[in-house]
Every structure is written in structure tokens, then in C-alpha cells.
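Fold this complex.
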Amino acid sequence: MWNEIKSLLRPGKTSRELAKGRLHLVLAHDRAGIEGAKLQELRNEVAAVIAKYVAIDPESVEIQIDRITRGGSTQLTVSSPLKARASEP
Amino acid sequence: MGRAIVITSGKGGVGKTTATANLGAGLAQLGNSVVLIDADIGLRNLDVVMGLENRIVFHVVDVIMGRCSAQKALIKDRRQENLYLLPASQTDEKDSVTPEQMKTLIFELKNVFDFVIIDCPAGIEQGFKNAVAGADEAIVVATPEVSSIRDADRVVGLLAANSIPTSLVVNRISPHMVKRGDMLSQADVIEILALELLGGVPLDEEIVASTNRGMPASVNGRSAAAKAFMMIARRIAGLEVEAERQTGAGFFAKLGRALGLSPA
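Structure:
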């Protein structure tokens, strides 16, 4: 409990928490077996497909690989803000 | 038929050889016949950790190449009757043996010994492939550090692809660093790697001293790490199957459970 109190008083995360967060991210990428350039390619293609159907800025599309659950399943998330409401016909 | 267990980690320097020596000595102490194979061809070390470096005449490559019988190459431990070492060659290359040859050798040894413990080299190349080829089970050793855990995760994936059941030993835990928030806890490592825990071993100066002497600490050792290795040896032998195995609970949780204060 003392540690919880200390972590409330102390600004920022402990190195233990940082390590945990970084490992989750790094392992998600390792497990997916997809590296930098390929991931960018995937992002660009997905962005192009989305842009075909809705108004988006292809540059704002973000792609993320991370592990959501404890069980170890890895999730691929693509997110993109939509542009202001498309003008009605 | 005995059990062949490979001790592996991916990353070097996390305590594979120390774990092999201590768990092997522990299993022998419990009355099992045990042979330790140093699969780190070209960089042998298990012999010095066991204090048997002066007795080596033949090695694992000699046995595989048919230059001598396995019986002739085995070195009996100084202290324990039923503990043997099959040393690595110091001059051959990792690819001087094949996974098939290792499999055959380990199968032969399983006919004679209760446990065949294989000390895997670091890395995930040929030496790793040779070391895991004949294994029925794997123990992954990881320290609570990002580099060790990342490499361990790679190895866990490769072992899963080979359908080898795998459990985890978390080595060199410093409880006060964990409390301070400066080290991943045993529970953190289990959560990240999603593996069954075999046990945690605290960081302990006695391990350095016992390695200097060439005598595994687990035999009659009183240090915290010696006791932890002995506990893990008992679990491998199936002697202790308690609730702590799943939860990795600490002293106070165990105390609470013993007093009936918290659910088991």
C-alpha cells in the first residue's frame, strides 16, 4: 500500500511501469512479425481504401499493433478521424 | 523412460547454465538419476560451473561421432552419486552435430536416466535447434529485464511452434527493487510472457561464490537462491503441487492464506 501512496505522490511512472508498457508494445510487434516498412505499406493501402468510401485525410491514419488482453492475443488497430461532415447532395 | 528438459532463454547471461547445474543437482539430491548435457558446443561452461573441468576426456561430439561410448564420456559429479555431466566440445562448431543426432543421443540417455537436462546455448540458431530437438519439455529462464523478456518471448514462440510444453523460471529478482518500482515483478513477467511459472529465484551473492567454488548452491544450500532452486527441482519432480504455483503469491499472501484470511 505504501508503494501505491508513493506512486500517487510521485509524478510520472516508475521504471517498472515503463518497462511493462514498452515490453507490451515491442512484443506485440514481434509477435505480429511485421516490421517498419511493411507496416507503413499496410497503413497506406488501408488509408487508400478508407478514402474511397469516406472523406478522410490519408496522412492522419494511424496504425497500431498492441495486446489488449491478458491472454496474449494481439490486436491490430487502424484509426482515422473523419473529415468534417461531407456536403449533402 | 526418463524426461528430457531443455533449459533455454534466447539471451545470454541470464543464468541458463547456473539453473541447469542447480536444478540438476537438486533433482539428483531428491533421489533421481540425472545427466546434464552441455549443448553449447564451442563455448562450454557447464563443466566449470559443476567443478568438473579437470575430468573431461571425451565430450558430446565424440559420442555423436561414435569415437567413444556415451558411458565413457559421462563424468560423475564430485558430490552426488547419481549425477553425471556430458560436456560440450570446446573446439568443434555448433553445426558439427545435427538435431537428428541429438535426438538419438537423448533418447538413448532417457533409457538410463530419470532426467536428461540440456543446457541450451544463447541465440536461436543451429545450437538452439540442436538443443531443443530431443527435448520433451522446456524451461525458459528470464531475468526481469526488457532485453531478457523480449528474447524469451521469441524463444517461447519457437518452442510453441515445435509443440514443446514450456514453463518459466524468473531469475535474479531483487525484491527491494521491485518494491521501489524499479524492477519488473515475477507477476509482471508471467503476465507479459503468458507462461506457467515454475518458480522465481532471488538475486543472491551466494550464487557467484558457489560458482567460484564449482559447487552448485542448491545442494544443502542455505541461501535464498539455493532454496528457490531446490523448490523448483521439487516441482519438476512433481513433489510439490501447491496453489502458489499459479499465483506466484508472496510471503504475506501465503501467510494470509495459512491463517485463513484470504482465499487460496
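The first strand of chain B starts at residue 3 and ends at 8.
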